Structures are given as C-alpha cells and as structure tokens.
From TrEMBL:
Protein name: Bifunctional S24 family peptidase/transcriptional regulator
UniProt entry tagged with the keyword DNA-binding: yes
InterPro entries for this protein: Cro/C1-type_HTH (IPR001387), Lambda_DNA-bd_dom_sf (IPR010982), LexA-like (IPR039418), LexA/Signal_pep-like_sf (IPR036286), Peptidase_S24_S26A/B/C (IPR015927)
A Pfam family assignment: Peptidase_S24
Molecular functions per Gene Ontology: DNA binding
Keywords tagged on the record: DNA-binding, Transcription, Transcription regulation
Residue span, HTH cro/C1-type domain: 13-67
Length: 246
C-alpha cells in the first residue's frame, strides 16, 4: 500500500463522498475535522496523516487501500486470456475457442434465468429519513453540529417508536453493532444497566452497553470505558433498533 499521492487521495475521497451522498462539510462535521482541512484534502492541497486515513476508512467502511491507491488506473490493453491464447499453436487455439464459446453460451443461459427471478426487495416500500449524528464504537467523536445526512430505509425495518438516527463508526461493539450500521435511538436521560445506549463522556459520543461503573465494549479486543466522578457523563438515549445494509 503506497502513501503520499495527494491527487489520488482527493479523487478517492470525492468518489466515496459521492457514493454516500455527502459533501466535504458533512464529512468534517461527522468526524469532527476542521472543514478547511477536509477541503484541502479533496482539492489535493494536503495529504491526511495515517491516523486520519484510518478514521476515514472506518467512516466509509472501506479498507485504507481504497483511499490511498489509484482506483481509476487504466487496465492492461491485453487481457491474460488473450495473452495465453496468442501463445498457443493453431490447433490448440481452436480447442480453446470451442471451450470459450461453450462457456459463453452457458453464461447467456444463466443470465436468462436470473433475469426472470424477481427480488422481493423490489416490492418493499422505502422511506428517506434524516441521519442527524455519528456515534463511535471506538475512540469517541465530538459532534457540535447535526450531520444533515439522509438515508433510505425499508419501512418494515423502521421501528414505531424512535426519536433520532445515528451512523456508527468503529468496531468496538461487534458483533452486535458493526461499523457502518445505523441506529434508531429513543431519547431518554436514563437507561437501565445492561442496556445498549448512546452516551456522551467528556464531550464525545459513544454507543456502549451500560454497566455499573463503566461502559462495556462488546468486542473483546476493545477496551471498556471506566467511569468515575471526574467524568462529565450524559445519557443521550437507548438504542431501540439496528439497521444494517446487506
């Protein structure tokens, strides 16, 4: 994985933002970056540090190579199949051509069958809803402004009683909650022990399970958050439903 090409990084960030329907300002708000910093990245003026690249990769739910490597590189003009075919003698070329024609016919027949299969998702109703915040299943995110992002959800997966939707960054709550999930939240100033909720600790927002004296990370590889009287702690709400894209 090579590092350092500002234009490649800029192109990849813009591509990933477009796929999510976001702009640089919304990205800056979501990850608590300075807007001028993000703007410099997307305009290829500066290059993000490695820790920022990791945060970007978690936010977009991609590998770091999807940010630092050229995803628009030209493909070779000669395919591997063509290269091998050109090295064969004429009799073997004829055998290879016969085999390839057979494979192509089978593929066409498979496509005809697949075109007649109707996905049940085509008949499910959907609804576009605002996603107002980002919560971390990781190191904590400070968010002063609303994210102002929109997301289309299947209506049969939208809970009846909720107040807000948040986007998850990080893996500390796996396997129950994964990076890139959406959480439906019921606002409440207090939740019971052993409940998964959204908590603000010293200004940073977390999704964790509430335990007595600490916030639990379900992923055994991630540390819990120990709480004491020195912390500024606020309960934002309870997670009532988790939405995950297939």
């Amino acid at each position: 994985m090579s590092l350092g090409n500002k234009q490649i990084m800029a192109d990849n960030i813009k591509r990933l933002l477009s796929a999510k329907g976001l702009n640089p300002r919304q990205l800056a708000i979501a990850l608590d970056f300075k807007y001028t910093t993000v703007n410099d990245w997307v305009n290829a003026k500066t290059y993000p540090r490695i820790d920022k690249i990791e945060m970007l990769a978690n936010f977009f739910n991609v590998s770091k190579s999807d940010l630092v490597e050229n995803k628009n590189a030209e493909t070779p003009t000669t395919s591997p199949i063509q290269s091998i075919y050109d090295q064969l003698t004429p009799p073997r070329q004829e055998k290879a051509l016969t085999y390839l024609k057979k494979q192509l016919l089978e593929q066409k027949n498979e496509n005809i069958v697949s075109e007649n299969i109707i996905s049940l998702d085509d008949y499910r109703e959907s609804k576009t809803l605002p996603v107002i915040g980002v919560v971390t299943a990781g190191n904590g995110i400070t968010q002063d402004d609303n994210l102002n992002m929109e997301k289309c959800f299947y209506t049969d997966e939208i809970p009846d009683d909720y107040d807000a939707i948040a986007y998850v960054v990080g893996n500390s709550m796996e396997p129950k909650i994964k990076n890139g999930d959406y959480l439906f939240i019921k606002n409440t100033p207090q939740v019971d022990y052993n409940t998964i909720g959204i908590f603000q600790v010293d200004g940073a927002n977390y999704v964790k399970k509430l335990r007595q004296g600490y916030l639990e990370s379900l992923n055994p590889e991630c540390a819990d958050i120990q709480l004491d009287e020195s912390n500024d702690i606020r309960t934002i709400g309870e997670v009532v439903s988790i939405y995950r894209e297939n």
